[in-house]
Design goal:
CATH topology of one domain in chain A: AhpD-like
CATH superfamily of one domain in chain A: AhpD-like
Number of strands of chain A: 0
Helix content of chain B: 55-70%
Number of domains of chain B: 1
Shape of chain B: globular
Order of helices and strands of chain B: HHHHHHHHH
CATH class of chain B: Mainly Alpha
Helix content of chain A: 55-70%
CATH class of one domain in chain A: Mainly Alpha
Largest sheet of chain A: none
Oligomer: heterodimer
CATH superfamily of chain B: AhpD-like
Order of helices and strands of chain A: HHHHHHH
CATH topology of chain B: AhpD-like
Strand content of chain A: under 5%
Structural class of chain A: mainly alpha
Chain lengths: ~130, ~180
């Protein structure tokens, strides 16, 4: 049960964004820009980064949600499964391996850090 | 040297906000809502949480800039940054703030470290649901900002004194438009 009263029908972050709409708004905007804004990374690749980070943080809600999105956008389920297990074995480009593996590099760090925030925030939902 | 070519000389997150204006807006707006907007927690208290979390994450730029903002807001001298690092040995911190800082410390380790007991202690000390929510979100958001600033290896001045003018500006002007072109 969450530590604060949240709407029952809104799981994970959705209940939190609804609880406090004013802080929810910039979080939504940031996520929209990072995940769906103009980018040389595809939406599927960005969802994969989110899923891998959330999995590393052991955040069940975020991992499940972003895995589902990645699978839909990529068109298969194996890529996300392999990436979460071992990025170097996954059928993704060397660039994507570099972005996901090791310590965070280059321009997609903001997706990773956004998801660290959201994974930590979800704590309030237990 | 930063891991990417920022095309500017600004320190810490300021250089990053300038580099990528598309994400600067929401990042600044989030800080404004969490740290400046009217709240039952004072601005000084909220900057104390932000600066403490940043120190625990070993992020010098964020800890120092928000520590300087806290010092300015609370009319404290520059050695308040040392107080923050040491967990406020010489500062009058309310039981409620102690409990909220405890929660922030747990979030900094990982969201799941927050326990029912931590929450109960905060509520018994008078913290409201919204104050608990905001403490967790400030801590979580600063885990994000800290990783953003350090993950790209931005530069920062070394001495505490160098951050005091920035702290004054943050105290007076807040975060909207910070660093943006």
């Amino acid at each position: 049960m969450p530590y604060i009263p949240l709407e029952d029908h809104l799981p994970g972050i959705t209940g939190l964004l609804e609880y406090r709409k004013d802080s929810g708004q910039p979080i939504r905007e940031l996520t929209q820009i990072l995940m769906r804004g103009q980018s040389s990374l595809t939406e599927g690749e960005r969802e994969l980064i989110a899923a891998v980070v959330s999995n590393g943080n052991q955040c069940k809600f975020c991992t499940t949600a972003h895995t589902a999105a990645a699978d839909l956008l990529i068109g298969d389920q194996q890529t996300s499964q392999m990436a979460k297990h071992d990025i170097n074995s996954a059928p993704v480009s060397e660039k994507m391996k570099g972005l996901n593996g090791g310590q965070m590099k280059a321009t997609r760090i903001s997706i990773c850090t956004n998801h660290f925030m959201i994974n930590s925030y979800i704590a309030i939902k237990q | 040297m930063a891991h990417i070519e920022l095309k500017n000389e600004m320190p810490g997150i300021v250089g990053l906000l300038n580099f990528r204006p598309e994400t600067a807006g929401p990042l600044n707006n989030l800080a404004e809502v969490l740290l400046v907007q009217d709240n039952s927690l004072t601005r000084g208290e909220r900057e104390m949480i932000a600066s403490s979390v940043s120190y625990w994450n070993d992020c010098h730029f964020c800890h120092s800039s928000h520590g300087a903002a806290a010092a300015n807001l609370l009319n404290k001298p520059v050695d308040f940054l040392t107080e923050i690092k040491q967990g406020f040995p010489n500062t009058d911190v309310s039981p409620k703030m102690k409990a909220l800082l405890q929660i922030a410390g747990k979030v900094q380790k990982g969201g799941k470290y927050v326990t029912e007991e931590d929450i109960r202690n905060a509520k018994e000390a008078g913290a409201t649901d919204v104050e608990i929510h905001d403490t967790v979100l400030i801590a979580a958001a600063f885990c994000m900002y800290n990783r953003y600033v350090d993950g790209l290896a931005t530069w920062a001045p070394k001495e505490d004194e160098a951050f005091m003018p920035m702290g004054k500006m943050l105290a007076e002007r807040g975060y909207v438009g910070a660093g943006e072109k």
